[in-house]
């Protein structure tokens, strides 16, 4: 048995986990196993709406507010929940889900372990979780979409590269019990209104007005939303993005050709040069997982990611040519294997978190 | 200055706030003001889906899971987030929102103070927050409803008894700055599917299967859902309900007449006697706020609550006649004034929390 009383006290006092664990003998259990047993010391936690719009019906509100004349509808905001640990590092992490998802992306994993929310709280970061406009807790919308009830769980199983239904990808970092899959399918949520890139990014631009400087952590569809946000708010001091899929912005007149794939072409979008230049001023890390084919593949679920990673590398080069600091990590190339489209909740998510922590430290964002 | 070091240490060690504060001299600042400055010590926090159904499309899943044949849709579950403080009391509080709402009900108040989630965590209770099936984070549904974009903020302002638009009720415990109202209107969220009493309660029945014994804390529409849940799961050891509005269950053949109001009649529902009897076996506290007219009133927003409180008292009597332990507190009658339909987030919510804590202690649920 190892006496953990010293590190325990350090943790309770809110020191950075890594610092506290540095004092442990090398034979101690891994950092993360130990840290997980410590209480989280939360200095402040709460939630709020940010951004959004208001529509007002014509006329005057009736005495007892029956009918709709003159009434308002507040919608299209983002909903934010946050926690600040004791002695938090200066820059909060603002975590943004992908398509069909909500804050759950960063919470308890489908197999019941801690996700990036808890992992990075334990590492001393304040964590903000987004539900973007027209999704989840931010479902109040000024324009409605029909709610989809199309059975499509297996399509997502393939597109998120868990496997090719009903088979799991070999070595996939995903637990194979039925309850994990049940939880995984239930972490999706429909959009309540049409997608609007500007409207959605605007809410998070306003979030950074409110909270000040921070680091965006995006996933998949929010990758493109994150670029928009950073182009319009200098409080975004860095970006870590997992598997961005769409809406890579290039300077007007410099758009690359669409990248074909068996799930359709991946296309870039145009941005004014001065907005684009803002992306050259912050450190950016782009991470992709495993099971992305090296050559065109007839499986659209996998092949789309091949095309998106090609586009991401073209985008990295475009930003870096103008003085930017973009790194693309394809996890298998650094020996981290088996990751799906959700590396932050895969079985090896602590290893993936270490990749992110290392970037944050190296770029002085941690 | 008062030396708070002793109570501070007690709080950090996870002692009940009330116990720790009992050691303070009478001249110390109020309990809640002090406690608010202490970090929350969270032993565990996370989230999961519970209950729900699965629909399966006919046919066989296509090789690459395109189309819909053979695919499944997991929906109709509840979504639960929870926190357990260090040295938590044995019975968790399971907090359930009302109509048009989600977990936000119990979180940061519209004016930015702590809601019942944080207040009761600080008092040593584990807290589970529900998004009921087809709402908010549990929006994935097997049956769709059209998303409402009807402007109706002012109607809710009246029905929730903040005032009679555009006037605030005199002495209302609600901050009058524009941003508070903005946050208040944005804490609503549409239903993604039709309301189904049994389907909705079933998810929370399964929650109590999973977590074991606990106390339900319901609001408004979930009052009726809470009775259903408790009738079908003995792990519900007590109920505190704020302003229940509908679905009061009476034994078959013993239904009272509908109570008329200017917002329409309030009707009881029937329950099998053996299910009803379960409600006589647990302590139940029903709380109503202020601005409920004593006599029939032409303002439907307010008058509906008069009728609902009449029904609640009839229900109390029906349960207590068969040996139950139901108390109805109309807050103005015990000198607590100015409360809206959301007493737990009103400006005096710490005073309201004290009423609830006192009940929990008295009934050995705390």
CATH class descriptor of the largest domain in chain A: Alpha Beta
Task: Name the strands of the widest sheet of chain A in spatial order.
Answer: 1-4-6-5-9-10-13-14
- What does the average pLDDT of chain A come to? 92
Low-confidence stretches of chain A: 1-36
What are the secondary-structure elements of chain A, in order, as H or E? HHHEEEEEHEHEEHHEHEEEHEHEH
Helix content of chain A: 25-40%
Note the beta-strand portion of chain A. 15-25%
Proper CATH architecture of the largest domain in chain A:
3-Layer(aba) Sandwich
Oligomer: homodimer
| Tally of individual domains of chain A | 2
The main sheet of chain A comes to: 8 strands, mixed
- Categorize the overall geometry of chain A: globular
Largest interface: A-B, 81 and 80 residues
Quick summary of this structure?
2 copies of one chain form a homodimer. Chain A starts with a helix and ends with a helix. The first copy, chain A, has helices at residues 5-12, 17-22, 31-36, 116-122, 153-159, 178-185, 197-211, 221-232, 273-278, 300-321, 349-362, and strands at 40-50, 53-56, 72-75, 78-85, 93-96, 127-131, 163-164, 167-168, 214-219, 236-242, 249-251, 269-271, 283-288, 325-330.
Descriptive notes:
The structure is a homodimer of 366-residue chains. The first copy, chain A, has 366 residues and is an alpha/beta fold. Chain A has two domains: 1-39, no CATH class; 43-362, 3-Layer(aba) Sandwich (Rossmann fold), CATH 3.40.50. Helices cover 30% and strands 19% of the residues of chain A. Chain A has eleven helices and 14 strands. Chain A has helices spanning 5-12, 17-22, 31-36, 116-122, 153-159, 178-185, 197-211, 221-232, 273-278, 300-321, 349-362; strands at residues 40-50, 53-56, 72-75, 78-85, 93-96, 127-131, 163-164, 167-168, 214-219, 236-242, 249-251, 269-271, 283-288, 325-330. In chain A, the strands form four sheets. In chain A, strands 1-4-6-5-9-10-13-14 form an eight-stranded mixed β-sheet, with helices on both faces. In chain A, helix 5 (153-159) packs across helix 10 (300-321) and helix 7 crosses helix 8. Residues 1-36 of chain A have low confidence and may be disordered. At the A-B interface, strand 1, strand 3, helix 5 and helix 6 of A face strand 1, strand 3, helix 5 and helix 6 of B. Strand 1 (40-50) of chain A pairs antiparallel with strand 1 of chain B.
């Amino acid at each position: 048995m190892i006496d953990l009383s010293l590190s325990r006290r350090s943790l309770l006092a809110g020191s950075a986990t890594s610092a506290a664990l540095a004092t442990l003998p090398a034979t101690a259990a891994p950092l993360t196993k130990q840290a997980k047993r410590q209480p989280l010391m939360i200095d402040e936690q709460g939630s709020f709406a940010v951004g959004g719009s208001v529509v007002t019906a014509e006329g005057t509100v009736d005495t007892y507010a029956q009918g709709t004349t003159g009434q308002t509808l507040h919608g299209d905001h983002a909903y934010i929940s946050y926690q600040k640990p004791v002695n938090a590092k200066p820059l909060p992490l603002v975590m943004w889900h992908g398509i069909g998802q909500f804050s759950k992306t960063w919470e308890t994993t489908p197999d019941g372990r801690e996700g990036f929310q808890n992992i990075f709280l334990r590492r001393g970061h304040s964590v903000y979780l987004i539900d973007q406009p027209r999704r989840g807790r931010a479902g109040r919308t000024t324009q409605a979409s029909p709610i989809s009830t199309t059975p499509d769980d297996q399509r997502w199983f393939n597109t998120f590269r868990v496997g090719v239904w009903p088979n799991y990808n070999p070595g996939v970092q995903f637990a194979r019990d039925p309850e994990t899959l049940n939880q995984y399918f239930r972490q999706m949520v429909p959009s309540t209104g049409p997608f609007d890139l500007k409207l959605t990014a605007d809410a998070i631009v306003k979030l950074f007005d409110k909270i000040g400087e921070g680091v965006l952590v995006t996933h998949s569809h929010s990758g493109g939303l994150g670029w928009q946000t950073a182009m319009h708010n200098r409080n975004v001091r860095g970006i870590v993005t997992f598997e961005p899929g769409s809406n890579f912005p290039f300077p007007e007149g410099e758009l690359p050709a669409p990248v074909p794939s068996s799930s359709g072409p991946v296309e870039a979008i145009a941005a004014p040069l001065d907005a684009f230049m803002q992306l050259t001023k912050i450190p950016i890390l782009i991470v992709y997982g495993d099971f992305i084919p090296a050559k065109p593949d007839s499986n659209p679920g996998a092949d789309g990611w091949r095309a998106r990673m090609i586009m991401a590398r073209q985008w990295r080069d475009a930003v870096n040519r103008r003085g930017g600091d973009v790194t693309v990590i394809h996890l298998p190339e650094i020996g981290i294997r088996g990751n799906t489209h959700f590396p932050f909740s895969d079985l090896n998510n602590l290893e993936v978190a270490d990749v992110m922590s290392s970037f944050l430290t190296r770029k002085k964002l941690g």
